Amino acid sequence: MNQSRPTDSNLSLDAESALSDPAAMIAQPYQLYVERTDPTKNMARYYAMSIEPTLFGEACLTRRWGRIGAGGQKLVHHFRREEEAVTLFLELLRKKRSRGYRPRLHSRQGPLP
Predict the structure, then answer these.
(1) 64 — phi, psi (to 5°)?
(2) Could you read off the pLDDT of 88-108 as tens digits, one per residue?
(3) Judging by beta carbons within 10 Å of its beta carbon (0-12, 13-18, 19+), is residue 62 exposed, middle or buried?
């Protein structure tokens, strides 16, 4: 016969580790979509980034880029802490803005890719 005592979930090791883990949840959503177009050079590029949590409690920075209307490329970075992902996110944003990428102007072309 099983005579184990009931456990209090507030005292279990799992509850304590979940509360002390800083990467358990993303504090706020980070998403960016910018474009760079120059008809004289036949240039129409997009760059998109987002930070999302993984199933393992890490922060994941996903980058997508390419020609507008095409599939493009994708690169995923995994970080133990959200702050590391945000640092890279902001660094990449500064670089893209310095190269002429700007938020998409509103148009009737439909939803974003």
Answers:
(1) -130, 140
(2) 999 999 999 999 999 987 654
(3) middle
